[in-house]
Design brief:
Blueprint (H helix, E strand, L loop, with lengths): L1 H16 L4 H19 L3 H14 L1 H11 L6 E3 L8 H18 L9 E5 L5 H5 L5 E4 L11 E4 L5 E4 L9 E6 L1 H16 L21 E11 L13 E8 L6 E8 L8 E2 L3 E5 L7 E8 L6 H17 L4 H4 L3 H16 L7 E9 L4 E5 L5 E10 L5
Parallel strand pairs: 3-6
Antiparallel strand pairs: 1-2, 2-6, 3-4, 4-5, 7-10, 7-11, 7-15, 8-9, 8-12, 12-13, 14-15
Helix pairs in contact: 1-2, 7-8, 8-10
Protein name: DUF3103 domain-containing protein
Keywords: Signal
Length: 388
């Protein structure tokens, strides 16, 4: 990209020497501007870095916006709330947001995705009393391989922060609104995995359920994640489940996406009492459940398409599905796990844990996943139809 821009600049200099027509030079200028935009918006990390630097350089303008909004109950300000920025900066934010929506495979209706978050409430008092902050962003790639966190001060100077130690100086983190991204991303995945059934809730083709009969379900009573040693800059986790099974009426995989929006932190026990499995959706009274964490570099359209492609390919290679029985389900899950780190993600922490072969009507108390990272209590629940 840099070489192409350099060549264009050299061409422009030559054009000026020979007094070429003005419209030719203008065309090249427009092309350079287009290339510059491509460079700024080529990936999520680059967009966050550029925005962090912009916010840092404009801190004196934005300080009032930040101080009017942030307090002990709210440490986050969305990019579209930065009203003190001029029209050009607002336009740049809009362009960056459109690029993010495309990179994430999300519709334009998703809205503003960039936000600024004070890294810890312990920094609030120092910042409110006038200590100058830094503006940081999470690096790209596996966080276990990070060696430093890059941050900008209000003069645009770069500072390097420790990965595993919360800074003493106030630090604002430029990041994506993970809750909004995950909610929209799950909707996109459901629309691909269960086409035409987007409004049917967490379990796709819910019309398979007969409202005149009791519904057999399993309820997530309790869930606990072990210490994943995430860096301070990463903030809250955004975890969702992929329930893998086989369609009861045809030889097709069913992949149901279940949002776990409350699961923010490790070393914390949550008691959601959430229905995560509708058993009428599956054959053989058995499913697997894969826990995943949202990653900045996930494109949800690509992810859903790959999930479907891999599971259908596995099933097409099995000559006699009935002879295999529910043993086919772990094969589907294992193929998904094999593909994930290399093909779709840049951060290995996207995989949280997996629960193989969960059965209908079975009570699982303090049950550990295969990687011993997640522990759940899952109980059967029969939901009876309304009595008129």
């Amino acid at each position: 990209m840099t070489n192409r821009i350099t060549k264009y600049l050299a061409a422009l200099a030559l054009l000026n020497v020979v007094s070429a027509p003005a419209f030719s030079a203008q065309a090249n200028i427009n092309e350079i501007e287009d290339l510059s935009k491509l460079a700024k918006y080529k990936d999520v990390t680059t967009i966050k870095r550029n925005f962090a630097k912009d916010v840092a350089l404009n801190y004196n303008l934005l300080n009032s916006d930040l101080k009017q909004t942030l307090n002990q109950y709210n440490l986050i300000l969305n990019a579209d709330q930065l009203s003190s920025l001029g029209m050009q900066k607002q336009q740049n934010i809009g362009e960056a947001n459109s690029a993010l929506q495309q990179l994430k495979g999300l519709p334009q209706s998703t809205g503003s995705l960039l936000q600024v978050r004070l890294a810890s409430d312990t920094m609030l008092a120092d910042w409110q009393q006038g200590q100058s902050p830094l503006f940081a962003f999470a690096p790209q790639g596996d966080d276990k391989l990070w060696t430093e966190i890059e941050a900008f001060d209000q003069f645009g100077q770069i500072h390097y922060l420790a990965v595993d130690e919360l800074p003493n100086q106030p630090v604002f983190v430029v990041e994506l609104d993970q809750q909004k991204v995950q909610s929209a991303g799950i909707a996109v995945m459901r629309s691909i995995l269960s086409p035409g059934k987007l409004n049917d809730g967490a379990f796709g083709q819910i019309n398979l359920l007969n409202n005149e009969k009791p519904m057999q379900t399993s309820v997530l009573k309790k869930i606990h994640l072990a210490d994943d040693k995430e860096p301070w800059i990463s903030g809250k986790a955004e975890v969702y489940a992929i329930v893998t099974g086989i369609d009861p009426s045809r030889d097709k995989p069913i992949l149901d996406i279940v949002d776990l929006p409350y699961l923010d932190h490790d070393e914390t026990t949550y008691n959601p009492n959430q229905v995560v499995i509708h058993w009428q959706r599956y054959r053989w009274q058995a499913v697997d459940m894969l826990l995943m964490e949202q990653d900045d570099n996930t494109n949800y359209k690509t992810l859903a398409s790959k999930l479907l492609e891999i599971t259908e390919q596995v099933m097409s290679n099995i000559p006699d599905l009935q002879a295999q029985g529910f043993a086919i389900i772990p094969k589907l899950t294992n193929e998904l796990l094999k593909a994930m780190p290399d093909e779709w993600f840049t951060n290995n922490d996207d995989y949280v844990d997996v629960f193989y072969t969960l059965f209908e009507n079975k009570d699982y108390q303090e049950y550990k996943g295969a990687s011993s990272n997640a522990t759940i209590t899952l109980s059967p629940l029969v939901i009876n139809p309304r009595q008129n």
